[in-house]
Amino acid sequence: MEEKIKQLNELFEKTRQEIGKAIIGQKDIIDFVLVGMTAGGNVLLEGLPGLGKTQLVKTIGKVLDMSFSRIQFTPDLMPSDITGTDIFVKEEQSFVFRKGPVFANIVLADEINRATPKTQSALLEAMQERTVTVGKDTYKLPDPFFVLATQNPIESEGTYPLPEAQLDRFMFKLNVAFPTAKELSDIVNLTTSNTLAEPQKVADSSLFAQIREIANQIPTADAVMEYAMNLIVKTHPENGWEYAKKYIVSGASPRAAQAIITASRILAVLNGRYNVSFDDIKKVAKPVLCHRLLLNFEALSDNISAEDIVDKLLDEK
Predict the structure, then answer these.
(1) Tag placement on the chain: N or C end, fewer CB within 10 Å?
(2) Please, which residues have CB within 8 angstroms of residue 57's CB and are 6 or more apart in sequence?
(3) Which three-class secondary structure state does DSSP give residue 37?
(4) Which residues on adjacent β-strands are paired with residue 85?
(5) Residue 195: its H or E element
(6) CA of 82: how far to CAs of 62, 72, 92, 109, 128, in Å?
(7) What is the pLDDT of residues 288-297, one digit of tens each?
(8) pLDDT value at residue 317
(9) With the C-alpha atoms ordered 58, 62, 64, 69, is the resulting torsion angle positive or negative?
(10) Homologous superfamily of 218-315 in CATH?
(11) Residues in Cβ contact with 11 at an 8 Å cutoff, skipping those fewer than 6 apart
(12) Contact 95, 133 (CB under 8 A)
């Protein structure tokens, strides 16, 4: 198994390098997106326009040779525009299902919060069950299947906040930061030259399945498991943690517990270890927990964010 893990790590590193040809900086974001996809999860990318969120998703699809579709979410987008619909074929005198763009390995839901809740809900079944139901018929989506969504954190006009049930279907929520001056210079040089590097395919979707298969065999010590579960439990105000009682309306769900352990096991494999460490848990805590905490008005008035609360949670002994 040691040799297998080494081979997979080398392939994973080559994947990172190829993505890096088209994406400058954002190394942590790239790593977390890849870890989330390896775990079979969906990822929400939040950041200002022009930070390369869409380009990152397209590049990952190209490097891993997976089918890719982009859905631009707008207020007039209908659920059937995503899932597909039955159309009447005159020659056959019957209805035939025409698949929508959700039938791809990687679905980019661009500016997902611009669509109405009804349209956003069309993704719920796909994200959780990997199926689409139209009328009385249920259709299986391609395997693997990932939703990588983007949203702008500062615009409110013409947007619809994602409901908690949908946010919970995202394994990670990642905040894409503005690049440094050096990274910005590299981006300009890369995108305005005539020698733009073209990322090449270095692996396929089986890379994720192989890493996940090994990760599922990684043991988690009782102390580490207890620490991770206590993080989840403490986010619920009824359990008595001071910060939760003061600032949180609703805490993290059981899906968060599943996500934090699964992602930590994958990190352990990618670091050549056969056990989950406390540091693995801490590293994935923010992207797993922050979007699952529903804060109250007092948190807003005290300028307390979900990130602040998770930081405090991780500082507790």
Answers:
(1) C
(2) 33, 45, 68, 106, 108, 148, 150
(3) helix
(4) 98
(5) none
(6) 22, 10, 25, 10, 16
(7) 999 999 999 9
(8) 55
(9) positive
(10) Magnesium chelatase subunit I, C-Terminal domain (1.10.8.80)
(11) 202, 203, 207
(12) no
User: Is it true that domain 2-192+201-208 has CATH number 1.20.1260.10?
Assistant: no
Residue 177 token pair = 């930061």
Q: How many helices (H) and strands (E) does the chain have?
A: 15, 11
Query: What are the tokens at 144?
Result: 């693997």
The half-sphere exposure of 105 on its side-chain side, counting CA atoms within 13 A, is 18
**Nearest Cα to 87, choosing from 43, 135, 44?**
135
**Six-digit token string for 186:** 């590299």
105 φ, ψ (degrees, to nearest 5): -70, -45
Query: What Å distances lie between residue 8 and 3, 59, 183, 210, 290, CA to CA?
Result: 9, 20, 29, 8, 30
Q: Which amino acid is at 168?
A: D
Say what the pTM is. 0.87
* 106-144 tens-digit pLDDT: 999 988 888 888 888 888 888 888 999 887 888 899 988
Alpha carbon separation from 148 to 27, 101, 111, 251, 309 (Å, rounded)? 17, 13, 11, 24, 25
- Alpha-carbon gap, residue 121 to 165, rounded angstroms: 9
Ordered by start, the domain boundaries in the chain are 2-192+201-208, 218-315
pLDDT tens readout for residues 40-57: 889 998 887 777 777 888
- Give the whole-angstrom CA distance, residue 232 versus residue 260: 9
The top-scoring range by mean pLDDT among 231-235, 238-242, 313-317 is 231-235
